[in-house]
Hints:
By secondary structure, this protein is an alpha+beta fold. It folds into 2 domains: 6-94, Pseudouridine synthase (2-Layer Sandwich); 100-192, Pseudouridine synthase. It contains 4 helices and 11 strands; from the N terminus they run ββαβαββββββααββ. It has helices spanning 50-55, 81-92, 168-175, 189-192, and strands spanning 19-23, 27-32, 72-78, 97-105, 112-116, 119-121, 129-131, 140-149, 154-161, 200-208, 215-219. The strands form 2 sheets. Strands 1, 2, 3, 4, 5, 8, 9, 10 and 11 form a 9-stranded mixed beta sheet that branches. A two-stranded antiparallel ribbon has the order 6-7. β10 (200-208) and β11 form a beta hairpin. The model is unreliable at 1-5 (pLDDT under 50).
Amino acid sequence: MTDSAESLAILPATTEPYQIVYEDDVLLVVNKPAKLLTVPGRHPENQDCLITRVQREFISAQVVHRLDYDTSGLVLLPLTKRVLSDISKQFQARSVQKHYVAVVDGRLAQAKGVVDLPIGADTENRPLYKVCHITGKPSVTRYHRLNFASETLQSRVQLEPVTGRSHQLRVHMLALGHAILGDTLYATPDIAAKSPRLMLHAEYIRFTHPLTGDVLSFTTPAPF
């Protein structure tokens, strides 16, 4: 899930600061607030972003993966080229484990399952993406319903992206018929209006430290 497509528009940056979750000499793990790009956008007014803020204090910080502008949560930032290369290889090998928490509209029919639907660019509605069995790339998401609120008809769901396509979690939840609350790109206006922000948070990440070989894991609870 990247914010590259969203960077085409003017996206005002939140004043909420990022939080350092872990720090050593070669890498950082930070908690990105919602409504902040991970990297500078193409529009001149989208220069305020997570990496520019982090580099004010950690000048060598690099981006190895991204979260959408609207998504909050954990981001891993290498501080050296060696660690950047190693972490990149871990992502490519899909050995980095991540899961997200989302609040979606309605009750999922199954408590847990797998969405295996290819995703490609929606060329007629850029910068959106869609399920496409012709040009889409293989995309897999595991989901687990955590609870269902009968009074609001909303489900809290844990999402594990096995692949990392742009807007994958949004598109896959929409394909199930359960759009994420606050999603102004994919949800219907009434569902988008149910939250002032996208109810999607990168809650957990697990990876191997490139220098020590230790397996590190971090969790930041969703702010919703």
